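Action item from last meeting closed. Structure (184 res):
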């Protein structure tokens, strides 16, 4: 467990030893980051009123904002944000009180709202707005504002979801190693 101090308040979060959190990324309170995952520059993960869980081998790219919801915000109970294993979340995405299942893909500047789900092998296109409670099915591509089903993904596109996650895990390991070497 790693603890951080902001304005005299201890904010706890848990980051696995082989994960990478870039300088300038902010993790607040109840946030867990799994093995080989990466949180890139200027991302904000705020688990202040519920929890955020990031699985293994997942990348949260630069400028992404992840938050949760509470009963005070008009929901029925707390809504956590759960992101599975092998997920790619593109630059500047917004994920709020939602679930992204294993080996899914959320494009750059996409927005996933309360209670929405992107199933395994699902893809939400760049700039898409997935409204509350909507579900992107496995093997589906959704796009637009509001997002709707566009077509089924090809086998190659599904393979690229796995490749993206693995490539980012390798890149994060290089960054982590270089940063560790810099400070020795």
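Sequence:
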């Amino acid at each position: 467990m790693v603890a951080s101090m902001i304005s005299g308040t201890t904010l706890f979060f848990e980051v696995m030893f082989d994960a990478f959190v870039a300088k300038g990324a902010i993790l607040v309170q109840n946030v867990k980051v799994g093995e080989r995952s990466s949180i890139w520059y200027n991302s904000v993960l705020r688990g202040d009123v519920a929890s955020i869980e990031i699985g293994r081998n997942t990348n949260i790219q630069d400028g992404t904002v992840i938050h949760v919801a509470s009963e005070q915000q008009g929901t029925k109970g707390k809504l956590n944000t759960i992101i599975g294993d092998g997920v790619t979340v593109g630059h500047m995405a917004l994920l709020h009180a939602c679930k992204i299942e294993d080996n899914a893909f959320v494009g750059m500047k996409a927005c996933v709202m309360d209670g929405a789900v992107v199933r395994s092998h699902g893809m939400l296109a760049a700039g898409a707005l997935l409204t509350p409670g909507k579900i992107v099915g496995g093997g589906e591509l959704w796009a637009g504002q509001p997002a709707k089903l566009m077509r089924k993904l090809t086998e190659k596109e599904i393979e690229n979801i796995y490749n993206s996650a693995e490539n980012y895990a390798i890149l994060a390991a290089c960054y982590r190693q270089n940063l560790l070497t810099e400070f020795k």
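Note appended to the action item: The two ends are 23 Å apart (CA to CA).
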